Amino acid sequence: MFGRIFRKKQEQKDFSGLVMPRHIGFIMDGNGRWATRRGLPRVAGHTAGGEAFKKICEYCINRNIDMITVYAFSTENWKRPQEEIEGLMKLFVENMHESIEGKRAKDMAITFIGDRTVFSPEMQKLMAETEKAHEHCPNKMNIAINYGGRAEIVRAARILAESGQEITEETMSRNMYTSHGPDPELIVRTGGEKRLSNFMLWQSAYSEFYFTDVLWPDFDEEQLDKALDYYRSVSRRFGGIK
Ligand code: FPP
Fold first, then answer.
1. Which phi and psi angles does 27 have, rounded to 5°?
2. Does the residue 153 lie in any domain?
3. Is 63 domain-assigned?
4. Which residue is closest in CA terms to ligand 1's atom 15?
5. Active site residue 139
6. In this structure, is residue 176 part of a structural domain?
7. Residue nearest to atom 18 of ligand 1 (CA)
8. Which domain, by its residues, includes 160?
9. pLDDT tens digit string along 148-178?
């Protein structure tokens, strides 16, 4: 019932006419195991994950997917060893510079979602510059960094309460970080675990979920197409009947 209020059931198609989700969320899990299996430090897994991430962005643009959201760093990831955190931050900074300098064949309009106030002023400035660099790109990407789904819901409720607005599903949705796009029709999680890990809790109410044992650095074009085939194979009824 509620899904019908907010969800337009219009179908998104790629350039060859295949039905596509308009928004895909990616939980990019398995970088650490990918590295450990090769006798490499965990950070090497994140570097390989960064390469997979860039390719997946391009494949999604090629498939006419309007928006992707990637889970790059959760509020829980601060518990990791300092060396790994520093390696990840370095990778994010390098990626932002690459994006600003227009080094990619294809780019997306980037929005960082999550609480960025914990980052240094330099890092926050770089994030703002990255967002500005390709803001007119038709395809959009949200990078979840220091992000937690529960915190996002609390934040939305606070904004509404503090501004004296009514709290409804619609006003809450409008105050989620991803309100500039549709809710994700598909969430992909690599690395074998079958859980959301605090990712887009509000937005995923009606999402389809695709779980694969493939580790994120090995998630390639063929794997993306498997996830999209799965999406096309499942029936989406939003609590109604077909
Ligand atoms: C989870 O794998 C992955 C992360 C915490 C980081 C994800 C980051 C990237 C893929 C880097 C590229 C991203 C951007 C936006 C440049 P894990 O380390 O928990 O893997 P494990 O479960 O095997 O230990």
1. -100, 105
2. yes
3. yes
4. 72
5. no
6. yes
7. 32
8. 25-233
9. 999 999 999 999 999 999 999 999 999 999 9
